[in-house]
Please model this.
Amino acid sequence: MPRCKNCGNYKNFACSFFSSTAPTANPEPYGLLANFDEQGNLTDMECLGATLDEAQEAFENQKNYFNTCANCGGNDIEW
Model:
């Protein structure tokens, strides 16, 4: 189960490998976001710049991809 050592978040994480390409005035800084449940299971992902193939790779290798806390921006993630 992922957990941010900085703020304690265990639900919302991002992948810093992909930039957001969302056509909005204030886009998310990350191109791939994921939500996890209380047991550490990935429940959903939001692709804002990552391709579907990249998202599939991230789903299969979560520890390698979801390296940033979506709440505080910290990258000290414990798995």
Residues 4 and 21 are 25 Å apart (CA to CA).
